[in-house]
Design goal:
- The chain contains 16 helices and 21 strands.
- It has about 550 residues and is an alpha+beta fold.
- The protein folds into 2 domains: about 325 residues, Periplasmic binding protein-like II (D-Maltodextrin-Binding Protein, domain 2, 3-Layer(aba) Sandwich), CATH 3.40.190.10; about 210 residues, Roll (Dipeptide-binding Protein, domain 3), CATH 3.10.105.
- Strands 14-18-13-17-15-16 form a 6-stranded mixed β-sheet, with helices on both faces.
- The chain is globular.
Amino acid sequence: MRLNKSFMTVIFLTILGLLVASCAPAAPPATPKVSATVEPSKPAAKPAPSPEAKPGVPTPSPKPAADQPRYGGILILGASSDAPSLDPIREASATLFNVFPAYSGLLQYDPLDNERIIPDLAERWERSGDGMAFTFHLRRDVKWHDGRPFTSADAAFSVDNQRKLNARKKDLLSAISGAETAGEYAVKVTVKQPSASLPAALAVGNMAMAPKHVYEAKGDMKNEVVGTGPFRFKSYSLGVSMELVKNQGYFVPGRPYLDGITAYIIKDRGTLVAAFRTGRIRMPVPSIFVTPTEAKAIEKNVPQAIVQPFQPLRATAFFMKTTEKPWNDVRVRRAVHLATDRQAALKALGEGEGILAAAMITGQWAIPGDELLKQPGFRQPKDADIAEAKRLLAEAGFPGGFDTRILARSGYGAGLTAAEFMTDQLSKIGIRGTLDTVESAIYLDRLDRIAYETVTTYGGPDITDPDSAASYFVKGNRYAISDERLLDLFDKQAGTADFAERKRLVLEMQHRVLEIAPYVLMLWFNSYIPRWPEVRNYKAGTGQHNNSKYQDVWLAK
Protein backbone atom coordinates (compact mmCIF):
# COMPACT_ATOMS: atom_id res chain seq x y z
CA MET A 1 0.00 0.00 0.00
CA ARG A 2 1.16 3.50 -0.76
CA LEU A 3 2.12 6.12 1.85
CA ASN A 4 -0.81 8.42 2.64
CA LYS A 5 0.02 12.13 2.83
CA SER A 6 -3.51 13.46 2.37
CA PHE A 7 -5.24 16.38 3.96
CA MET A 8 -6.13 13.93 6.80
CA THR A 9 -2.79 14.97 8.30
CA VAL A 10 -4.39 18.25 9.39
CA ILE A 11 -7.29 16.43 11.02
CA PHE A 12 -4.98 14.00 12.79
CA LEU A 13 -2.83 16.88 14.07
CA THR A 14 -5.90 18.58 15.47
CA ILE A 15 -7.06 15.39 17.19
CA LEU A 16 -3.63 14.76 18.60
CA GLY A 17 -3.39 18.32 19.89
CA LEU A 18 -6.66 17.83 21.75
CA LEU A 19 -5.48 14.41 22.91
CA VAL A 20 -2.35 15.71 24.63
CA ALA A 21 -3.50 19.20 25.59
CA SER A 22 -5.27 17.93 28.69
CA CYS A 23 -2.26 15.94 29.92
CA ALA A 24 -0.98 16.79 33.40
CA PRO A 25 2.15 18.00 33.34
CA ALA A 26 17.44 -7.09 37.75
CA ALA A 27 19.61 -9.18 36.40
CA PRO A 28 19.92 -9.33 32.61
CA PRO A 29 18.64 -12.45 30.85
CA ALA A 30 20.81 -15.39 29.93
CA THR A 31 21.76 -16.11 26.35
CA PRO A 32 18.85 -17.73 24.50
CA LYS A 33 18.57 -21.49 24.82
CA VAL A 34 18.72 -22.95 21.32
CA SER A 35 18.75 -26.55 20.17
CA ALA A 36 20.49 -27.53 16.97
CA THR A 37 17.15 -28.91 15.75
CA VAL A 38 13.88 -27.29 16.77
CA GLU A 39 10.53 -28.90 16.20
CA PRO A 40 7.70 -26.79 14.83
CA SER A 41 5.44 -25.09 17.33
CA LYS A 42 1.76 -26.01 17.27
CA PRO A 43 -0.26 -23.15 18.77
CA ALA A 44 -3.79 -24.13 19.72
CA ALA A 45 -6.70 -22.32 18.16
CA LYS A 46 -9.35 -23.22 20.76
CA PRO A 47 -9.47 -22.63 23.60
CA ALA A 48 -7.15 -19.62 23.77
CA PRO A 49 -4.21 -20.18 26.14
CA SER A 50 -3.86 -18.49 29.48
CA PRO A 51 -2.09 -15.10 29.29
CA GLU A 52 0.93 -16.54 31.08
CA ALA A 53 1.18 -19.77 29.05
CA LYS A 54 4.38 -20.45 27.10
CA PRO A 55 4.82 -22.58 23.99
CA GLY A 56 5.10 -26.24 24.91
CA VAL A 57 3.92 -25.70 28.50
CA PRO A 58 0.58 -27.21 29.64
CA THR A 59 -2.18 -24.64 30.05
CA PRO A 60 -2.79 -23.79 33.73
CA SER A 61 -6.12 -24.37 35.45
CA PRO A 62 -8.89 -22.12 34.12
CA LYS A 63 -9.04 -18.62 35.57
CA PRO A 64 -12.10 -16.42 36.03
CA ALA A 65 -13.58 -15.25 32.74
CA ALA A 66 -12.30 -11.71 33.36
CA ASP A 67 -8.71 -13.00 33.17
CA GLN A 68 -9.14 -15.07 30.01
CA PRO A 69 -7.79 -13.69 26.72
CA ARG A 70 -10.47 -11.99 24.70
CA TYR A 71 -10.70 -10.69 21.17
CA GLY A 72 -11.18 -7.11 20.07
CA GLY A 73 -10.04 -3.61 20.83
CA ILE A 74 -7.39 -1.23 19.50
CA LEU A 75 -4.06 -0.98 21.33
CA ILE A 76 -3.05 2.68 21.53
CA LEU A 77 0.72 3.20 21.58
CA GLY A 78 2.92 6.25 21.85
CA ALA A 79 5.91 6.65 19.51
CA SER A 80 8.47 9.45 19.48
CA SER A 81 9.15 9.94 15.78
CA ASP A 82 8.54 8.90 12.21
CA ALA A 83 10.83 6.38 10.56
CA PRO A 84 13.23 7.75 7.92
CA SER A 85 11.63 5.18 5.61
CA LEU A 86 9.45 2.09 5.93
CA ASP A 87 11.91 -0.25 4.19
CA PRO A 88 12.26 -3.30 6.50
CA ILE A 89 15.59 -4.35 4.98
CA ARG A 90 17.47 -1.11 4.47
CA GLU A 91 16.16 0.75 7.52
CA ALA A 92 17.59 -0.09 10.97
CA SER A 93 16.04 2.73 12.98
CA ALA A 94 14.05 1.73 16.07
CA THR A 95 11.34 4.06 14.75
CA LEU A 96 10.28 1.09 12.58
CA PHE A 97 8.56 -0.19 15.74
CA ASN A 98 5.44 1.35 14.26
CA VAL A 99 5.43 -1.28 11.48
CA PHE A 100 7.18 -4.24 13.15
CA PRO A 101 3.79 -5.89 13.90
CA ALA A 102 3.27 -6.25 10.14
CA TYR A 103 6.35 -8.47 9.72
CA SER A 104 7.70 -11.86 10.74
CA GLY A 105 11.21 -13.29 10.91
CA LEU A 106 12.60 -16.75 10.33
CA LEU A 107 12.93 -17.10 14.11
CA GLN A 108 11.88 -15.03 17.11
CA TYR A 109 12.45 -14.64 20.82
CA ASP A 110 9.61 -16.08 22.88
CA PRO A 111 7.48 -13.05 23.83
CA LEU A 112 7.01 -14.39 27.37
CA ASP A 113 10.50 -15.85 27.89
CA ASN A 114 13.26 -13.85 26.24
CA GLU A 115 15.80 -16.59 26.97
CA ARG A 116 14.24 -18.88 24.34
CA ILE A 117 14.43 -18.80 20.58
CA ILE A 118 11.32 -20.26 18.95
CA PRO A 119 10.08 -20.73 15.37
CA ASP A 120 8.40 -18.01 13.38
CA LEU A 121 8.35 -18.45 9.60
CA ALA A 122 10.84 -21.32 9.95
CA GLU A 123 9.16 -24.36 11.53
CA ARG A 124 12.50 -25.97 12.36
CA TRP A 125 16.18 -25.71 11.53
CA GLU A 126 19.37 -27.71 11.73
CA ARG A 127 23.09 -27.06 11.63
CA SER A 128 25.36 -29.07 9.35
CA GLY A 129 27.89 -31.46 10.84
CA ASP A 130 30.83 -29.20 9.99
CA GLY A 131 29.01 -26.15 11.37
CA MET A 132 29.29 -24.28 8.06
CA ALA A 133 25.61 -24.16 7.12
CA PHE A 134 22.14 -23.85 8.62
CA THR A 135 19.02 -25.09 6.86
CA PHE A 136 15.70 -23.47 7.80
CA HIS A 137 12.53 -25.38 6.90
CA LEU A 138 9.70 -22.95 6.23
CA ARG A 139 6.00 -23.02 6.91
CA ARG A 140 3.88 -23.80 3.83
CA ASP A 141 0.73 -21.95 4.89
CA VAL A 142 1.96 -18.35 4.83
CA LYS A 143 0.84 -15.57 2.52
CA TRP A 144 2.03 -12.02 2.15
CA HIS A 145 -0.53 -9.36 2.93
CA ASP A 146 -1.01 -8.89 -0.84
CA GLY A 147 -2.03 -12.56 -1.21
CA ARG A 148 1.18 -13.91 -2.73
CA PRO A 149 2.70 -17.03 -1.08
CA PHE A 150 5.79 -16.75 1.10
CA THR A 151 8.56 -19.05 -0.21
CA SER A 152 12.25 -19.79 0.19
CA ALA A 153 13.03 -17.24 -2.54
CA ASP A 154 11.74 -14.50 -0.23
CA ALA A 155 13.72 -15.86 2.72
CA ALA A 156 17.00 -16.14 0.80
CA PHE A 157 16.51 -12.66 -0.66
CA SER A 158 15.79 -11.15 2.75
CA VAL A 159 18.70 -12.76 4.62
CA ASP A 160 21.19 -11.95 1.89
CA ASN A 161 20.11 -8.33 1.59
CA GLN A 162 19.86 -7.67 5.34
CA ARG A 163 23.62 -8.26 5.54
CA LYS A 164 24.44 -6.38 2.33
CA LEU A 165 22.25 -3.28 2.52
CA ASN A 166 22.00 -2.49 6.22
CA ALA A 167 25.13 -1.23 8.00
CA ARG A 168 23.86 -2.08 11.49
CA LYS A 169 22.74 -5.59 10.55
CA LYS A 170 25.89 -6.16 8.50
CA ASP A 171 27.95 -6.44 11.69
CA LEU A 172 25.44 -8.72 13.38
CA LEU A 173 25.27 -11.01 10.33
CA SER A 174 28.97 -10.79 9.47
CA ALA A 175 29.40 -14.57 9.76
CA ILE A 176 27.10 -15.19 6.77
CA SER A 177 28.66 -15.85 3.39
CA GLY A 178 25.39 -16.38 1.51
CA ALA A 179 21.80 -17.57 1.47
CA GLU A 180 20.16 -19.73 -1.18
CA THR A 181 16.98 -21.70 -1.73
CA ALA A 182 17.01 -25.40 -0.91
CA GLY A 183 13.67 -26.24 -2.44
CA GLU A 184 10.51 -24.16 -2.43
CA TYR A 185 10.19 -24.24 1.35
CA ALA A 186 13.73 -24.41 2.70
CA VAL A 187 16.57 -21.91 2.75
CA LYS A 188 20.24 -22.69 3.31
CA VAL A 189 22.43 -20.09 5.01
CA THR A 190 26.18 -20.66 4.74
CA VAL A 191 28.78 -19.09 7.04
CA LYS A 192 32.43 -18.11 6.64
CA GLN A 193 33.36 -20.08 9.73
CA PRO A 194 31.37 -22.09 12.28
CA SER A 195 28.97 -19.73 14.04
CA ALA A 196 27.30 -20.63 17.32
CA SER A 197 25.21 -17.47 17.36
CA LEU A 198 23.58 -17.29 13.93
CA PRO A 199 20.11 -18.37 15.16
CA ALA A 200 20.32 -15.74 17.92
CA ALA A 201 21.11 -13.05 15.34
CA LEU A 202 18.30 -14.08 12.98
CA ALA A 203 15.79 -14.05 15.85
CA VAL A 204 16.29 -10.33 16.56
CA GLY A 205 12.98 -8.51 16.13
CA ASN A 206 14.08 -6.32 13.21
CA MET A 207 15.34 -9.21 11.04
CA ALA A 208 12.14 -9.06 8.99
CA MET A 209 11.45 -11.26 6.00
CA ALA A 210 10.41 -9.04 3.10
CA PRO A 211 8.65 -9.83 -0.22
CA LYS A 212 11.12 -10.27 -3.05
CA HIS A 213 8.45 -9.55 -5.67
CA VAL A 214 7.76 -6.07 -4.27
CA TYR A 215 11.46 -5.14 -4.34
CA GLU A 216 11.76 -6.45 -7.89
CA ALA A 217 8.74 -4.42 -8.99
CA LYS A 218 9.46 -1.17 -7.15
CA GLY A 219 13.16 -1.21 -6.23
CA ASP A 220 12.62 -0.61 -2.52
CA MET A 221 9.94 -0.52 0.17
CA LYS A 222 10.45 2.99 1.46
CA ASN A 223 6.74 3.70 1.11
CA GLU A 224 5.36 0.16 1.25
CA VAL A 225 4.25 -2.14 4.07
CA VAL A 226 3.74 -5.71 2.86
CA GLY A 227 4.53 -8.37 5.43
CA THR A 228 3.31 -11.70 6.79
CA GLY A 229 2.83 -10.51 10.39
CA PRO A 230 -0.24 -10.48 12.63
CA PHE A 231 -1.25 -6.96 11.59
CA ARG A 232 -1.70 -5.29 8.21
CA PHE A 233 -1.04 -1.70 7.18
CA LYS A 234 -4.08 0.60 7.14
CA SER A 235 -2.89 4.22 7.07
CA TYR A 236 0.01 6.50 7.89
CA SER A 237 -0.03 10.26 8.39
CA LEU A 238 3.47 11.68 8.80
CA GLY A 239 4.01 13.20 12.21
CA VAL A 240 0.58 12.08 13.40
CA SER A 241 -0.10 8.34 13.55
CA MET A 242 0.16 4.92 11.98
CA GLU A 243 -2.74 2.49 11.97
CA LEU A 244 -2.53 -1.28 11.59
CA VAL A 245 -5.45 -3.70 11.50
CA LYS A 246 -5.79 -7.39 12.28
CA ASN A 247 -4.48 -9.78 9.62
CA GLN A 248 -7.36 -12.21 9.23
CA GLY A 249 -5.12 -14.58 7.30
CA TYR A 250 -2.31 -14.75 9.88
CA PHE A 251 -0.62 -18.15 9.93
CA VAL A 252 -0.90 -18.66 13.72
CA PRO A 253 -4.41 -19.98 14.49
CA GLY A 254 -6.43 -17.76 16.79
CA ARG A 255 -4.05 -14.79 16.64
CA PRO A 256 -3.91 -11.91 16.99
CA TYR A 257 -6.42 -11.02 19.70
CA LEU A 258 -6.44 -7.29 18.95
CA ASP A 259 -8.49 -5.72 16.17
CA GLY A 260 -5.67 -3.31 15.50
CA ILE A 261 -2.90 -1.03 16.70
CA THR A 262 -2.66 2.75 16.48
CA ALA A 263 0.68 4.42 17.22
CA TYR A 264 0.51 8.17 17.78
CA ILE A 265 3.65 10.15 16.96
CA ILE A 266 4.34 12.42 19.95
CA LYS A 267 7.78 13.95 19.47
CA ASP A 268 8.03 15.82 22.76
CA ARG A 269 9.05 13.34 25.45
CA GLY A 270 7.34 15.21 28.28
CA THR A 271 4.10 15.30 26.33
CA LEU A 272 4.37 11.60 25.54
CA VAL A 273 4.89 10.64 29.19
CA ALA A 274 2.01 12.93 30.17
CA ALA A 275 -0.21 11.30 27.54
CA PHE A 276 0.48 7.96 29.19
CA ARG A 277 -0.23 9.29 32.67
CA THR A 278 -3.66 10.57 31.59
CA GLY A 279 -4.49 7.34 29.74
CA ARG A 280 -4.50 8.85 26.25
CA ILE A 281 -2.00 6.19 25.22
CA ARG A 282 -1.91 2.80 26.89
CA MET A 283 1.83 2.13 26.61
CA PRO A 284 4.84 3.47 24.69
CA VAL A 285 6.57 1.46 21.99
CA PRO A 286 9.60 -0.44 23.41
CA SER A 287 12.10 2.01 21.94
CA ILE A 288 10.81 4.66 24.38
CA PHE A 289 12.99 3.98 27.42
CA VAL A 290 11.34 5.33 30.56
CA THR A 291 14.07 6.38 32.97
CA PRO A 292 14.14 5.44 36.67
CA THR A 293 13.01 8.95 37.63
CA GLU A 294 10.15 8.89 35.12
CA ALA A 295 9.16 5.40 36.31
CA LYS A 296 8.93 6.58 39.92
CA ALA A 297 6.80 9.55 38.87
CA ILE A 298 4.45 7.24 36.94
CA GLU A 299 4.15 4.87 39.90
CA LYS A 300 3.29 7.82 42.14
CA ASN A 301 0.81 9.52 39.83
CA VAL A 302 -0.68 6.42 38.17
CA PRO A 303 -0.61 3.79 40.94
CA GLN A 304 -2.69 1.37 38.86
CA ALA A 305 -0.07 1.33 36.08
CA ILE A 306 2.19 -1.69 35.59
CA VAL A 307 5.81 -0.53 35.31
CA GLN A 308 8.05 -3.34 34.05
CA PRO A 309 11.87 -3.29 34.40
CA PHE A 310 13.49 -3.37 30.99
CA GLN A 311 17.10 -4.07 29.97
CA PRO A 312 17.49 -2.16 26.68
CA LEU A 313 21.13 -3.25 26.24
CA ARG A 314 22.14 0.38 26.01
CA ALA A 315 25.45 1.59 27.43
CA THR A 316 27.37 4.83 27.32
CA ALA A 317 31.02 4.77 26.29
CA PHE A 318 34.03 7.02 25.64
CA PHE A 319 36.04 5.92 22.57
CA MET A 320 39.60 7.04 21.82
CA LYS A 321 40.97 7.06 18.26
CA THR A 322 43.67 4.42 18.67
CA THR A 323 45.26 5.05 15.28
CA GLU A 324 46.50 8.58 16.05
CA LYS A 325 48.57 10.31 18.73
CA PRO A 326 48.30 10.48 21.66
CA TRP A 327 45.65 7.74 21.74
CA ASN A 328 47.79 5.21 19.89
CA ASP A 329 49.82 4.89 23.12
CA VAL A 330 48.25 2.23 25.34
CA ARG A 331 49.63 4.01 28.41
CA VAL A 332 47.52 7.08 27.66
CA ARG A 333 44.39 4.98 27.13
CA ARG A 334 45.06 2.96 30.28
CA ALA A 335 45.36 6.21 32.22
CA VAL A 336 41.85 7.22 31.15
CA HIS A 337 40.56 3.74 31.95
CA LEU A 338 42.02 3.95 35.46
CA ALA A 339 40.85 7.48 36.19
CA THR A 340 37.19 7.02 35.22
CA ASP A 341 34.91 6.54 38.23
CA ARG A 342 32.23 4.06 37.10
CA GLN A 343 30.33 4.27 40.39
CA ALA A 344 30.05 8.03 39.91
CA ALA A 345 28.75 7.37 36.38
CA LEU A 346 25.98 5.19 37.81
CA LYS A 347 24.85 8.09 39.98
CA ALA A 348 25.30 10.89 37.46
CA LEU A 349 24.17 9.17 34.26
CA GLY A 350 22.07 6.22 35.42
CA GLU A 351 20.08 8.11 38.05
CA GLY A 352 21.49 5.77 40.69
CA GLU A 353 20.59 2.62 38.76
CA GLY A 354 22.30 0.46 36.20
CA ILE A 355 25.00 -2.19 35.85
CA LEU A 356 28.73 -1.50 35.99
CA ALA A 357 30.11 -2.03 32.50
CA ALA A 358 33.45 -3.72 31.95
CA ALA A 359 34.25 -4.35 28.32
CA MET A 360 31.46 -5.15 25.91
CA ILE A 361 28.79 -7.43 27.31
CA THR A 362 26.32 -7.89 30.12
CA GLY A 363 24.54 -10.90 31.54
CA GLN A 364 25.98 -14.35 32.10
CA TRP A 365 28.88 -13.79 29.71
CA ALA A 366 30.22 -10.74 31.57
CA ILE A 367 33.03 -10.60 34.11
CA PRO A 368 31.25 -11.29 37.45
CA GLY A 369 30.46 -8.17 39.44
CA ASP A 370 32.42 -9.16 42.56
CA GLU A 371 35.50 -9.85 40.44
CA LEU A 372 35.02 -6.63 38.47
CA LEU A 373 35.08 -4.48 41.62
CA LYS A 374 38.62 -5.71 42.31
CA GLN A 375 39.89 -4.72 38.85
CA PRO A 376 41.98 -1.56 38.29
CA GLY A 377 39.62 1.17 37.16
CA PHE A 378 36.71 -0.18 39.18
CA ARG A 379 38.18 -0.14 42.69
CA GLN A 380 37.03 2.26 45.36
CA PRO A 381 38.35 4.63 46.57
CA LYS A 382 39.97 5.96 43.38
CA ASP A 383 43.21 7.25 44.93
CA ALA A 384 45.45 4.37 43.83
CA ASP A 385 44.00 4.28 40.30
CA ILE A 386 44.41 8.03 39.78
CA ALA A 387 47.99 7.95 41.05
CA GLU A 388 48.79 5.13 38.61
CA ALA A 389 47.06 7.01 35.80
CA LYS A 390 49.19 10.11 36.36
CA ARG A 391 52.33 7.95 36.43
CA LEU A 392 51.40 6.37 33.07
CA LEU A 393 50.74 9.77 31.48
CA ALA A 394 54.11 11.09 32.66
CA GLU A 395 55.81 7.94 31.34
CA ALA A 396 54.10 8.49 27.98
CA GLY A 397 55.50 12.06 27.84
CA PHE A 398 52.50 14.00 29.15
CA PRO A 399 53.28 14.93 32.77
CA GLY A 400 51.18 18.08 32.40
CA GLY A 401 48.39 16.42 30.45
CA PHE A 402 47.19 17.64 27.05
CA ASP A 403 44.13 19.01 25.23
CA THR A 404 41.56 16.90 23.39
CA ARG A 405 38.21 17.42 21.69
CA ILE A 406 35.26 15.14 22.53
CA LEU A 407 32.74 14.62 19.73
CA ALA A 408 29.19 14.64 21.16
CA ARG A 409 25.70 14.44 19.68
CA SER A 410 23.42 17.36 20.49
CA GLY A 411 20.00 16.56 21.91
CA TYR A 412 20.82 12.91 22.43
CA GLY A 413 20.45 12.56 26.18
CA ALA A 414 22.94 10.15 27.68
CA GLY A 415 25.53 10.59 24.92
CA LEU A 416 25.82 14.32 25.60
CA THR A 417 25.74 14.07 29.40
CA ALA A 418 28.38 11.34 29.16
CA ALA A 419 30.65 13.76 27.29
CA GLU A 420 30.18 16.34 30.04
CA PHE A 421 30.88 13.66 32.65
CA MET A 422 34.10 12.60 30.90
CA THR A 423 35.49 16.15 30.77
CA ASP A 424 35.38 16.09 34.57
CA GLN A 425 36.95 12.63 34.77
CA LEU A 426 39.78 13.57 32.39
CA SER A 427 40.53 16.76 34.31
CA LYS A 428 41.55 14.66 37.35
CA ILE A 429 44.67 13.55 35.48
CA GLY A 430 45.40 16.79 33.61
CA ILE A 431 43.67 16.02 30.30
CA ARG A 432 41.68 19.07 29.22
CA GLY A 433 38.59 18.01 27.28
CA THR A 434 36.53 20.39 25.12
CA LEU A 435 33.12 19.37 23.80
CA ASP A 436 32.71 19.24 20.03
CA THR A 437 28.89 19.14 19.93
CA VAL A 438 27.21 18.70 16.54
CA GLU A 439 23.76 17.78 15.25
CA SER A 440 22.84 14.12 14.68
CA ALA A 441 23.48 13.94 10.93
CA ILE A 442 26.98 15.43 11.23
CA TYR A 443 27.74 13.31 14.29
CA LEU A 444 26.80 10.06 12.56
CA ASP A 445 28.75 10.99 9.43
CA ARG A 446 31.88 11.74 11.44
CA LEU A 447 31.40 8.57 13.47
CA ASP A 448 31.24 6.51 10.27
CA ARG A 449 34.40 8.21 8.94
CA ILE A 450 36.17 7.95 12.32
CA ALA A 451 36.64 11.73 12.08
CA TYR A 452 37.16 12.45 15.76
CA GLU A 453 39.82 12.49 18.47
CA THR A 454 37.54 11.06 21.10
CA VAL A 455 33.77 10.47 21.09
CA THR A 456 31.01 9.54 23.51
CA THR A 457 28.31 7.14 22.39
CA TYR A 458 25.00 5.85 23.68
CA GLY A 459 24.01 2.51 22.21
CA GLY A 460 24.72 -1.18 22.23
CA PRO A 461 24.00 -4.58 20.74
CA ASP A 462 20.59 -6.06 19.98
CA ILE A 463 21.02 -9.23 22.06
CA THR A 464 23.28 -10.50 24.85
CA ASP A 465 25.02 -13.07 22.65
CA PRO A 466 28.83 -12.45 22.53
CA ASP A 467 28.91 -12.15 18.73
CA SER A 468 26.35 -9.35 18.78
CA ALA A 469 28.08 -7.54 21.64
CA ALA A 470 31.56 -7.93 20.15
CA SER A 471 30.36 -6.91 16.70
CA TYR A 472 29.30 -3.60 18.24
CA PHE A 473 32.15 -3.03 20.71
CA VAL A 474 35.08 -4.89 19.07
CA LYS A 475 34.56 -5.29 15.34
CA GLY A 476 32.36 -2.26 14.74
CA ASN A 477 33.90 -0.22 11.92
CA ARG A 478 33.31 3.12 13.69
CA TYR A 479 35.94 2.69 16.39
CA ALA A 480 39.22 1.79 14.64
CA ILE A 481 39.95 -1.20 16.90
CA SER A 482 42.49 -3.47 15.21
CA ASP A 483 44.17 -5.51 17.95
CA GLU A 484 45.10 -8.87 16.39
CA ARG A 485 44.82 -10.87 19.60
CA LEU A 486 41.39 -9.42 20.32
CA LEU A 487 40.10 -10.19 16.82
CA ASP A 488 41.54 -13.71 17.01
CA LEU A 489 39.71 -14.32 20.29
CA PHE A 490 36.51 -13.07 18.65
CA ASP A 491 36.86 -15.54 15.78
CA LYS A 492 37.65 -18.45 18.12
CA GLN A 493 34.66 -17.90 20.43
CA ALA A 494 32.33 -17.35 17.47
CA GLY A 495 33.05 -20.84 16.15
CA THR A 496 33.01 -22.65 19.51
CA ALA A 497 29.87 -24.68 20.22
CA ASP A 498 30.93 -25.85 23.69
CA PHE A 499 29.43 -23.38 26.18
CA ALA A 500 32.14 -23.62 28.85
CA GLU A 501 34.98 -23.15 26.37
CA ARG A 502 33.18 -20.32 24.62
CA LYS A 503 32.60 -18.55 27.93
CA ARG A 504 36.29 -18.88 28.78
CA LEU A 505 37.23 -17.27 25.47
CA VAL A 506 34.65 -14.49 25.92
CA LEU A 507 36.02 -13.68 29.39
CA GLU A 508 39.55 -13.61 27.98
CA MET A 509 38.34 -11.26 25.24
CA GLN A 510 36.91 -8.88 27.85
CA HIS A 511 40.13 -8.88 29.87
CA ARG A 512 42.01 -8.09 26.66
CA VAL A 513 39.73 -5.08 26.10
CA LEU A 514 40.49 -3.84 29.61
CA GLU A 515 44.20 -4.36 28.98
CA ILE A 516 44.45 -2.36 25.74
CA ALA A 517 41.66 0.09 26.75
CA PRO A 518 40.39 1.33 23.34
CA TYR A 519 37.37 2.74 25.16
CA VAL A 520 35.83 3.23 28.58
CA LEU A 521 32.41 1.61 28.98
CA MET A 522 30.68 3.39 31.85
CA LEU A 523 27.41 1.59 32.56
CA TRP A 524 24.51 -0.42 31.18
CA PHE A 525 21.31 1.54 31.72
CA ASN A 526 18.21 0.37 33.54
CA SER A 527 14.93 1.34 31.90
CA TYR A 528 11.21 0.65 32.29
CA ILE A 529 8.14 0.12 30.10
CA PRO A 530 4.85 1.27 31.65
CA ARG A 531 1.44 0.01 30.56
CA TRP A 532 -2.12 0.39 31.73
CA PRO A 533 -3.48 -2.71 33.50
CA GLU A 534 -5.97 -3.65 30.77
CA VAL A 535 -3.03 -4.35 28.43
CA ARG A 536 -2.48 -8.04 29.14
CA ASN A 537 0.07 -10.67 28.20
CA TYR A 538 2.89 -8.29 27.41
CA LYS A 539 6.37 -8.74 28.83
CA ALA A 540 9.20 -6.33 28.18
CA GLY A 541 11.80 -8.07 26.05
CA THR A 542 15.57 -7.67 26.07
CA GLY A 543 17.05 -5.22 23.61
CA GLN A 544 15.07 -2.52 21.88
CA HIS A 545 14.02 -4.56 18.82
CA ASN A 546 12.43 -7.62 20.44
CA ASN A 547 8.85 -8.46 21.45
CA SER A 548 7.24 -5.94 19.14
CA LYS A 549 4.57 -7.93 17.23
CA TYR A 550 1.83 -7.95 19.92
CA GLN A 551 0.23 -11.09 18.49
CA ASP A 552 -0.48 -12.47 22.00
CA VAL A 553 -1.47 -9.17 23.62
CA TRP A 554 -5.13 -8.71 24.54
CA LEU A 555 -7.19 -5.98 26.18
CA ALA A 556 -9.19 -6.61 29.33
CA LYS A 557 -11.85 -4.07 28.40
